[in-house]
Amino acid sequence: MHLSLPEPPLAWETGSLRPWTPDDAPVLTAAWRDREIARWNPVPAEPTLELAARWIAGCDQRLVDGRSLDLCIVDATNATIVGEVGLSGFDWDRGAAMIGYWLLPAGRGRGLATHATAALAEWATDKLGLHLVVARCASTNLASQAVTQRAGFSHAHSDGAGNELWVHRGAPQL
């Protein structure tokens, strides 16, 4: 299945989402080096600018292949990248995908992850046609669980591996 970028781009009063560009590699490298981001997300063992540039260069192909959609969270006050939100783990037969997000220190505590997560989940169910968007949060990552709850996700269950699963369901198709 071929994915496409949200059109028009997703935005709200305090921020917006946009694709990664080659110029963003320093920001991604800094994110991978951030202790809190690395604590909760898989990041390279030795983050480098070259690895970040290579990952960004692969975003378009992952989109075309239907494997992932990765977007920058941009702060509207200064047009800087403060995080990422993305969809991956697509199960096209079931109409489901996983959503993930992270924020740099400059974006934390201002609702940007909540707005980004809600906007992308709504777009995924309304425009992409998914029936279910799932967020998997570590049981001890209370901030991430709060993001999903504020974004309108419902707690589904614990997966037995130390994670809480939160779900956003699209409207039933009649």
Q: Would you summarize the structure shown here?
A:
The protein is an alpha+beta fold and 174 residues long.
Global mean pLDDT: 94
What do we call the CATH topology? Aminopeptidase
Shape: globular
* Rg, nearest Å: 15 Å
Total number of distinct structural domains: 1
Strand order, largest beta sheet: 1-2-3-4-5-6-8-7
Question: What structural class results from the helix and strand content?
Answer: alpha+beta
**First-to-last CA distance:** 23 Å
Give the uncertain stretches in residue-range form: none
Descriptive report:
By secondary structure, the protein is α+β, with helices and mostly antiparallel strands. It has a single domain (11-169), classed as Gcn5-related N-acetyltransferase (GNAT) (Aminopeptidase, 3-Layer(aba) Sandwich). Helix content is 31%, strand content 31%. The protein has helices at 25-33, 35-40, 49-57, 59-64, 112-126, 142-150, and strands at 11-12, 15-19, 68-75, 80-91, 96-103, 132-138, 154-158, 163-169. It has an 8-stranded mixed β-sheet. A hairpin with a 4-residue loop joins strand 7 (154-158) and strand 8. The radius of gyration is 15 Å and the shape is globular. The model has no long low-confidence stretch (mean pLDDT 94).
